[in-house]
Design brief:
Number of helices: 12
Structural class: alpha/beta
Helix content: 25-40%
Bound molecules: pyridoxal-5'-phosphate
Strand order of the largest sheet: 2-8-7-6-5-3-4
Number of domains: 2
Largest sheet: 7 strands, mixed
């Protein structure tokens, strides 16, 4: 099986698993305890905090561990909502559902700025909406298209009006460098399983000095910012994944990943007719490509590719056999047929050039086969794209 669905989740690195194991065995003590084993767990958590901070150029006390990207996002947005005066929650039309649904539930007016055809935020529209905003939440990179957003410009414009900024950086972290000194966000949400750490663990960056209100009330762990007994093993795993991500970003393996993605993408677009590459080519994660195949239903393609041993995702929301353009594709004004025939491929450091080559051949054969047999509609199929 060749896994090209790394924007959905990633494989645990061996060194991450190794770092976690002792904390699942003998190191099970509650980190809040007063005895030696508890202190050891506390120290391990604080080491991981420093490692995660180091990945994004933050200070350790600016990192709060959570149960993942979704909780970090909900915590950040609830805090901003509770502590800012009147005004809109200013976000974008292409955010992940964790942001969209959370914002919808706040008792506050919402304004969603659009994107251009390439999937990048419309900065002029953003600027025009800023005077009415109480706070801003703009993602770092989109999970479907991999298109990166102009975070520095967003921050500069919001900061000039003293408007706090949160970013869902779940897809960005580990794939491209982010330094919160260069992109001075107030809050940033991270998720370990997107960069070869364990699932169910994440972090919220909270800039020193920012007013903050916790979402979960309870035992007051994480300096009162996130109650609940700490998941020592997963926190240690996230720390180890952060260390590995930092050295990966600085290594030749990072440019190799882009070369593998580019080879795959270029081979597909040159060897198969009727393929459209969706999303901004210049401002994009180095691992992602989002492609539409004329005359092919994405659900059918996914089945054929799965049979051929290739794991990837539909580029649009696909439920109970009915392909529907996703909110991201709608915001990008991608025509419906193109949206319904799109696939998302996400490479990772585990993929090789041979994987890319094998995937090209599998996609080629699947597209040819589907074009031969494809009648209107190939349901019913149930596929969920996170
Ligand atoms: N934000 C983005 C952009 C994502 O892609 C995801 C996961 O798919 C999330 C948030 C949610 O993160 P988690 O799975 O850690 O809750």
């Amino acid at each position: 099986m060749i896994d090209l669905d790394s924007n959905a989740t990633t494989r645990l690195l061996p060194e991450v698993l190794e770092a976690m194991m002792p904390w699942l065995e003998d190191g099970y003590a509650n980190p809040s305890g007063s005895y030696k084993a508890a202190k050891k767990a506390r120290n391990a958590i604080n080491d991981a905090r420093a490692q995660v901070a180091d990945l994004i150029g933050a200070s350790p006390e600016e990192i709060t561990f959570t149960s993942g990207g979704t909780e970090s996002i909900n915590t950040a947005l609830h805090s901003l909502h509770s502590l800012t005066g009147h005004g809109t929650a200013l976000s974008s039309a292409i955010e992940h559902s964790a942001v969209l649904k959370c914002i919808e539930h706040l008792d506050r007016q919402v304004e969603m700025v659009g994107v251009d055809h390439s999937g990048r935020l419309d900065l002029d529209a953003f600027e025009a909406s800023l005077p009415n905003a109480a706070f801003v939440s703009i993602m770092g990179a989109n999970n479907e298209t991999g298109v990166t957003q102009p975070l520095v410009e967003v921050i500069e414009r919001a900061k000039s009006r003293q408007i706090p900024v949160h970013s869902d950086t779940v897809q960005l972290i580990g794939k491209l460098p982010l330094d919160v000194k260069e992109a001075p966000l107030d809050l940033a949400s991270l998720s370990a399983h997107k960069f070869h750490g364990p699932k169910g663990i994440g972090a919220l960056y909270i800039r020193n000095g920012l007013k903050f209100q916790s979402l979960l009330q309870g035992g007051g762990q994480e300096s009162g910012r996130r109650s609940g007994t700490e998941n020592t093993a997963s926190i240690v795993g996230m720390g180890a994944a952060a260390v590995a991500a930092k050295s990966f970003l600085e290594s030749a393996d990072h440019s190799a990943l882009k070369n593998i993605r580019d080879h795959f993408q270029n081979s597909i677009t040159s060897e198969i007719d009727g393929v459209t590459l969706n999303g901004n080519i210049q401002h994009r994660l180095p691992n992602t490509t989002h492609l539409s195949f004329d005359g092919c239903d994405a659900a059918g393609l996914l089945i054929l590719l799965d049979e051929a041993g290739i794991q990837c995702s539909a580029g649009s929301a696909c439920m109970t056999g009915k392909q529907k353009p996703s909110h991201v594709q709608l915001a990008m004004d991608i025509p419906e047929d193109q949206a319904k025939s799109s696939l998302r491929f996400g490479f990772s450091r585990f993929n090789t050039m041979e994987d890319a080559e094998a995937a090209v051949q599998a996609v080629k054969q699947s597209v040819e086969k589907l074009r031969r047999i494809q009648g209107p509609g190939v349901g019913p199929v149930t596929i969920y794209t996170p």
